[in-house]
Amino acid sequence: MARAKVYITLKEGILDPQGKTVLRALKSLGYEEVGDVRVGKYMVLELDGDDKARLEERLGEMTERLLANPIIEDYQMEVEI
Amino acid sequence: MARAKVYITLKEGILDPQGKTVLRALKSLGYEEVGDVRVGKYMVLELDGDDKARLEERLGEMTERLLANPIIEDYQMEVEI
Asked: What is the pTM of this model?
């Protein structure tokens, strides 16, 4: 059994209204040191198998097909056996 | 200028309907090796300052007060100067 983590963020240049809202809220609470906020997704998957290369390949496919929107999002992933 | 990353996940035992939906969708696409999926949030913040301990303390406060819901969510954070 392996555990995989996928981090999905909006690409540079894609507007992030959720991040802007969080930024404004933090400023209004007095956190003036915050310059920018980007909000993304973080997914943790349990995967059956122990061939790390194969799991990474399959996870990349899952991410491209379903988890992320590759047109507007970037992603990074980690598989721990 | 520092960059901070915050990873927010639902606590163990808290139902994750979004994760269950993703799991079902992956299975229906033929990814039978997926055993479980949990969906969380991933935030990247730009912070002004270079006192790492102080930034971590402030970021912990921001996370408890606004970014996460500590009743149902766990979080981890990293500050890179």
From this structure: 0.94
